[in-house]
Every structure is written in C-alpha cells, then in structure tokens.
Amino acid sequence: MTHDTALMDSTGREAMENEAALLRIQHEATKTAHEAAMSAVETETVQTRARDELHTYIKAVASYYFGSMTGFHKVIAKYYLEEKPWTRPGWAWLFPKSTYSYAGGVSTIKGGWRQYNITLPIDIAQRIREAHAEVQAGNPQISLASFLYTMLVWAVANYFPPKKRGIEGAKETEHVSRSVLG
Q: For an engineered disulfide with 147, which of 43, 73, 92, 132 has Cβ 3.0 to 4.6 Å away?
C-alpha cells in the first residue's frame, strides 16, 4: 500500500467516523426536541394488556426511535386511525389474555402477560375511543383493550418488524410478531 493510498483510506475512515458522530448528534437532538414538545402536551392513559415479549420489544423501539413510549404511542395511534386497517378484507381482531388467573376464589398473577398503559395526547385518545365505538357498534365483542392490543401488534408487524431493525435486543424478540399474531 502506498503512502497516498494509506492517506486516502485514513481520510475515508475519518470521514465515516465524523458522519457517524454527526448522525448520533442529530438523533439525540431529534429525541430531545420530541421530548420537549411532548412534555407540553396534555396526555391521557388508556389501558390494554400485552405479552411480556411485545412490551419489551416496544420499549426498545420507542426508546431508540422516539425517545419515549408516549412518542411511539402517538405515532402508531395516528397511523392506525388514518389507515383504518380494520376496514380491509381479512382483518382479524386479537384478544389480550388476562394478567390474573382465578381458582378456588383466589386470584394469582399469571406470567407472560402484563397491563400495558398507552399514553396519548388527549385529542388522539378521544379519536381512538370514537373509532373503537364505531367498530364496537358492528362487533360488540371488541373491547377497547382488544382494539388497542391489535393496534400494538399491527404497528410492530407493519412498521417495526424485529428482524428488519437494528435495535439492540431484537435477536431475543425476533419472534414477537409471529408469536403475537399466531
């Protein structure tokens, strides 16, 4: 390798490192700006239940791409309401399982599922309730928890499929969309 080639390789590597550093700074700035904007918005919490693996995966996605769970919820709820995937042929609603089991008058915590709080700006939470009411008018068995759980699974399966994202921990949760949909 000549001195000129080594110098070009070194310069190219330095340029890539500088670009990577710039991208990290931009990513952090975007997260910070989003967090600041979200802190000024009044929010409301709606509840569903989710599998532990799904919850863990969404936390990783939310942290990496949105800086907060609220940011993730806001974006996916907005897309869910705009796209109305439940109006498409072949749509299947998902029903979350209980987080408790009842036997002999005693309730015990059941592993594998947990309560999942979805924090949204008040206007989006209201639109979610309105869309749910429309769905429930034609399908009385669809609870708000089912409507929201299906939204979470739909978002992960369509926008953040585990194998296609470079999120740390994705290897442990690559089965999420398959196991939750199955």
A: 132
